[in-house]
Amino acid sequence: MGAQAVPYRPLGGDLHRHGSDPPHSHPHGGPHTHGPQPHGPGHSHGLVDASIKRSRAGLRAVGLALAVLAATALAQLAIFLATGSVALLADLVHNFGDAATAIPLAIAFLLRSARAERFAGLLVVVAIFLSACFAGIEAVGRLIDPESPSDLVVLAAAGVVGFAGNLAAARIRTGAGKRLDSPALVADGNHARADAYVSLAVVFSAAAVGLGFDLADPLIGLAISAVILRITWDSWRTVRGHHHRH
């Protein structure tokens, strides 16, 4: 009699069956799965899971920075209504615009779309540019029709509030942007960090007016506009550079 045929079994595997599948083997031992499996301990979603985690982390960063900047801008708005400082107006308008950029960023992270994220980065740049234009127009108008701000101590306090709020938002955005490799968040973080130092210009404005130099307020407003334009260019380079790498 001839030798009985022995089924082929790859090294390390045994014949087995899954549901209605025909018997088969694997060239590896240990637990494994076939097709969709119910969620259980140790399961993995691969890239999908990483995408979801990135989306949630991005949304958390955007939401937290939005809350910080909105509170900062509202506090500055109340002080502007009391003082009438154009330097403070330039800063608070910029902070409101900076806070508004959270909307397209949040949508991009929610959609988990690289294209939407790049578009959000471009919107950030546009928002920075528009705020620079607005601040510049207001400063020129105040040079033509001078009007000294009042309550200088309160005005200086508003500058300190702006500095602290923007610095906190910058750390949130830049840190998350680097962890998530998000050019839009990095650009927005650098934007907020520069704004923190721009806010200190409001403090100098209050000091200069207190010393009798009334034109210091609109002149510092113009200087803030110039700084914001520089931030616009730097942010554009950040967003465009990442796009070219991809």
What does this structure look like?
The longest helix is centred in the N-terminal third of the chain and has 37 residues, at 47-83. The protein is mainly alpha-helical and 246 residues long. The chain is built from seven helices and no strands. Residues 35-47 have low confidence and may be disordered. 73% of the residues lie in helices and 0% in strands. The chain has a single domain (53-245), classed as Alpha-lytic protease prodomain-like (Up-down Bundle). It starts with 46 loop residues before the first helix and ends with a helix.
Short structural description:
The chain is built from seven helices and no strands.
Q: Which architecture does the CATH hierarchy give at level 2?
A: Up-down Bundle
The main β sheet shows up as:
none
Number of strands: 0
Global structural class: mainly alpha
Coarse morphology: elongated
Would you tell me which CATH topology applies?
Alpha-lytic protease prodomain-like
What percent of residues are in strands?
under 5%
* Element string (H = helix, E = strand): HHHHHHH
- Runs in which pLDDT lies below 50 for 5 or more consecutive residues are 35-47
- End-to-end Cα distance, whole Å, is 67 Å
List keywords for this structure.
mainly alpha, Alpha-lytic protease prodomain-like, 246 residues
